[in-house]
Design the sequence.
């Protein structure tokens, strides 16, 4: 069967500025990544990677990004991701960096990884909790995260991003 | 301290704080390293495992003259307090000395300018035998485009000589945003010409080996090997007259 094989790269946007998280947009992120590929690999690299390049999923609360590219050119993409230095949106520049978490062949595997990762992140937040209510909130979301039919992810629930 | 917090959140399990000693100015004293417990009252836990993160101290000596190496052999007590010692040679002769005789854990390879000397195979092979690792920095590559070219060209020339063994990729981040996660750094290794397995090793196992090398350098001065010797008295007696004969003949 002839099928296009893709690679899905799961990244996390890490930044010092708390406002940066809220202004993440798909288009801005796509432009930033393409710009980094152009700087590192030149015109050939940009052309190769942009065959099937899209930002598939973006979660502004946790800063999780899922990128898609062709299997043949995912190495070019992955090696250019460390060179993303800032995001631009609405004429504002936010310095940040992308941290690659997982590379998978399908969205489903990336989703499974993301659920596990969010679970560990919630556990870590649980340790730093000071408030009893926050503690209970987090425990509740920990117990309820799973791969359900509605595709609800635990990352969507309100986490205390103050510690990030 | 911010940098360390970001490190921990991104997934590193051991971090080394670096002090650079440059010998251009005279009369540099080796200062005592900052103890990591002063920075953090309690070290946070590594993501994913239940062990605490190790914070180590590291000393980098920038040598441009053979007399600077005497500092390593001196009995200054402060040197012993550092966990890892790295040397940054500026000339070919110093590179040779660092690989063969100096008692260091890491040899830094300059990434910010064109190398004044070419790597030769004999000192590199001796360094690999001795367990010394070559270090490449990735932070200048992220900052600046010309540095990126020098980094890649120096790294590739090193790869051609040492075939990708004994490489450590590390970052000298001065701000928390110049840091990159371990998976990303391994991907950078692919740009430098390493294979995928070697690149991952450059971030994980080689670093651990360097830490162990530093620990053995701090603790062990020699190894005593005892073996039970079988009785060889008769053989010795027959051997002795043979020696005497040999001496008289020679």
Sequence:
């Amino acid at each position: 069967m002839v099928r296009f094989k893709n690679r899905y790269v799961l990244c996390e946007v890490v930044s010092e500025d708390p406002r940066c998280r809220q202004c993440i947009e798909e288009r801005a992120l796509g432009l930033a990544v393409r710009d980094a590929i152009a700087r590192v690999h030149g015109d050939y690299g940009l052309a190769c990677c942009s065959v099937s390049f899209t930002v598939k999923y973006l979660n502004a609360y946790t800063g999780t990004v899922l990128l898609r590219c062709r299997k043949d050119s995912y190495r070019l993409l992955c090696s250019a991701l460390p060179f993303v230095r800032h995001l631009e949106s609405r004429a504002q520049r936010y310095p940040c960096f992308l941290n690659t978490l997982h590379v998978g062949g399908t969205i489903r595997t990336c989703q499974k990884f993301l659920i596990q990762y969010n679970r560990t992140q919630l556990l870590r937040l649980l340790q730093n909790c000071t408030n009893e209510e926050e503690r209970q909130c987090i425990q509740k979301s920990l117990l309820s995260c799973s791969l359900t039919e509605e595709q609800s992810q635990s990352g969507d629930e309100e986490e205390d991003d103050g510690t990030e | 301290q911010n940098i360390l917090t970001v490190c921990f959140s991104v997934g590193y399990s051991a971090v080394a704080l670096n002090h650079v000693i440059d010998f251009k100015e005279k009369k540099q004293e080796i200062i005592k390293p900052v103890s990591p417990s002063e920075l953090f009252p309690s070290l946070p836990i590594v993501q994913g495992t239940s062990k605490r993160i190790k914070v180590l101290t590291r000393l980098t000596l920038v040598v441009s003259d053979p007399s600077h190496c005497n500092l390593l052999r001196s009995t200054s007590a402060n040197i012993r307090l550092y966990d890892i010692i790295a040397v940054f040679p500026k000339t070919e002769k110093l590179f040779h000395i660092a690989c063969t005789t100096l008692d260091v854990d890491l040899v830094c390879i300059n990434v910010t300018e064109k190398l004044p000397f070419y790597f030769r195979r004999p000192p590199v092979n001796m360094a690999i035998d001795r367990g010394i690792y070559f270090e490449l920095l990735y932070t200048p590559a992220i900052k600046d485009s010309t540095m990126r070219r020098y980094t890649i060209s120096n790294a590739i020339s090193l790869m051609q000589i040492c075939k990708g063994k004994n490489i450590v990729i590390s970052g000298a981040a001065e701000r928390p945003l110049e840091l990159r996660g371990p998976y990303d750094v391994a991907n950078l290794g692919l740009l430098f010409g390493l294979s995928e397995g070697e690149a991952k090793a450059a971030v994980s196992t080689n670093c651990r080996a360097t830490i162990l090398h530093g620990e053995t350098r701090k603790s062990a001065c020699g190894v005593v090997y005892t073996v039970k010797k079988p009785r060889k008295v008769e053989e010795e007696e027959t051997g002795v007259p043979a020696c005497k004969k040999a001496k008289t003949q020679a």
Residues 26-49 of chain A form the longest helix (24 residues). Chain A has a mean pLDDT of 79. The interface with chain B takes residues 14-16, 39-40, 75, 78-79, 81-83, 85, 95-101, 120, 124, 127, 164 of chain A (CB under 8 Å). Chain A is about 40% helix and 25% strand.
